[in-house]
Amino acid sequence: MQALVMLLATGATYYLGLLAAAAAAINPGRPNTPGSLPAHRRQKRDWIWNQMHIDEERNDSLPHYVGKIKSSVDPKKTEYQLRGESAGKVFRVDKNTGDVYALERLDREKISEYHLTALVVDKDSKKNLESPSSFTIKVHDVNDNWPVFTHRVFNASVPEMSGIGTSVIQVTAVDADDPTVADHASVVYQLTKGKENFDIRGSGLIVTMNKHLDRETQDKYEVVVEAKDAQGRRGESGTATVFITLRDVNDNFPIFTQNRYTFSVPEDIRVGSPLGSLFVEDPDEPQNRKTKYSFVQGEYRDTFTIDTDPSHNEGIIKPIKPLDYERIRQYSFTIEATDPTIDLRYLGSTSPKNIARVIINVTDVDEPPIFQQPFYHFQLQENQKKPLIGSVLAKDPDAAQRDIRYSIRRTSDKGQFFGITKKGGIYNDKELDREVYPWYNLTVEAKEVDLSGTPTGKESIVQVHIEVMDENDNAPEFAKPYEPKVCENAPQGKLVVQISATDKDITPRDVKFKFSLSTEDSNFTLIDNHDNTANIIVKYGYFDRERAKVHHLPVLISDNGRPSLTGTSTLHVTVCKCNEHGEFTLCEEAAAQVGISIQALVAIFLCILTFTVITLLIILRRRLRKQARAHGKSVPEIHEQLVTYDEEGGGEMDTTSYDVSVLNSARHGGAKPPRPALDARPSLYAQVQKPPRQAPGAHAPGEMAAMIGVKKDEADHDGGGPPYDTLHIYGYEGAESIAESLSSLGTDSSDSDIDYDFLNDWGPRFKMLAELYGSDPQEELVY
């Protein structure tokens, strides 16, 4: 059984005891007989609590009594123990009596209840006499906490000029006490600062109390909120600060920064260019500045316009048509600045300072001449020369009224067909052909000149369009090239081809072309269809290809112009062999019968002429080169010359590209080879020769100085040398070095300790090296 009996078991035992006591009272002293209610012999157990309570923050001395656990087992043999996380730390039990004590003051806001386990064990063996029983110790709340706000600082905003009662922000304070206990966690709010403009309601909602909150006057407010416990101790409360910002609304008119604006602009200012700016002051924020500028009573509305710059809220004045100093020198008008998006509910009165006066002074500039027309259009009959086609006129708009001179830009009249007089009269120097150019577009320049005719001012241009009028100066001709063919056995009346005509002149709608053959003695006849076409048909029939394979028919074509013109066009009709179905089987081209065309002859002639000119130029160039060479040999040209050698040689077997005797002569001390002529190419290797050795003990300059002196004397006494600077290459390093000369070219084989005669045994590929470094047999015989 459990040491701590549950409530149900305890109640049952209790009632059985009552029944037994009642029976004993009815029959006192009566023994228990069979059939009577037997006395309950079970040992009575005490009421065992499974829940205990203790108040938090008790002020009396520790430890604090909490409650008691008890078992019906003989107390002399029992011992009480506690198990749990807080056992021994926060709570302890008297092992003999079962009294439970709290070892420290408890705080319900930290831990509201503790769970423990009670044990009843034997004092000696420490074995459990009852099963472990769990129980709970609950901490009773006392009102010992005041409300605390969720934030120390709150930020809120509300539109300016808001009505009374407009919500601003909801603030919240929390009381850590038990909310299930009446009024322990109730919070009461009140404002300690800012109550003249704001108020707070019971739930912590801050609202406006002043409908005239103007952001332009004050844009930020500080409100202090206090939160108290409804039954808390006096002076114990929480506070928070609320910063309220007023949001801007469009409630202010723009006001001009000055009552009068004056600008000076040149008269040649470009249309649409800004000439000045108007500035206003609007205390609203930029997003609520929507200033609109307008003219009062429509003054000069057709001359200027005012645009609003959205980034700076300024008005920009621009001319919408050209200004003229000579016509109007000053403009004066009144402008107004308004804001159409303003909320009129917030306005107390309209500001009278939104009107300003603008004065624009136009300054004079030297303007170019102005033509009376934007362009000119003249007509001229073709094939005529006219002393006056038309006139252009330009004037000086300035007060000086200078004279104007005219000219035609040659880029617009490359053929130089036209001219212009000083007064602007245009004429043509050459006859014009409408069929070549029907229109001429000229650019005429006008320049201001002084009394002497010198240009002094600016210039201007105008376009002159000259239309060349047509006249009937071109005879009709075939509308297209024809290549008619006819069978040699064609019957009489067979249609050969239908022809039509065209005219290079402007063809009127009622044009009529007449067709006829210049001769009627052929086997063809022409029938005019009177619709500007004609048919060529076979007159007699049967053609003899042996006599003529191509027939040439001159056709006369006349127009109905004034005067009427007649042209002749020739048809080349080819006679072909045909099969029984009338299909052509064998035809000679008309062009082959006619012969080579003029264009082909011209092309052949040009080719021959080009070839002849090229041949003559080549012969002439060779003759000039020979003369130059002959002249160069007689009189040497005196100049500095840089000779570049870029040959690398062909190896040991190459004995043709280089003169090996130069090396051998240098090696054996032979005479220096002759200097090459001016036109000859210099040898690849320069002569290498040691200077004469000085006698021992003689006082002489160094070997290098002696060698340079020798070379200088050779160059001075060389009569065949050129009279200009040359480049001498020396392969001698001098004898002052311990290693002496490192050049193989300057090394004499007789002075070397190495015998290079073995190179003769290495074959023909080393023949060159053997000749350079091997010993000379004649030299050996001498010694």
Automatic annotation (TrEMBL):
Residues 80-149, 150-256, 257-371, 372-478, 478-585 form the Cadherin domain. The keyword Glycoprotein applies. PROSITE patterns: CADHERIN_1, CADHERIN_2. Keywords: Calcium, Cell adhesion, Cell junction, Cell membrane, Cleavage on pair of basic residues, Glycoprotein, Membrane, Metal-binding, Repeat, Signal, Transmembrane, Transmembrane helix. The chain crosses the membrane at residues 596-620. Residues 1-24 form the signal peptide. CDD domains: Cadherin_repeat. Cadherins are calcium-dependent cell adhesion proteins. This is Cadherin-5. It comes from Bos indicus (Zebu).
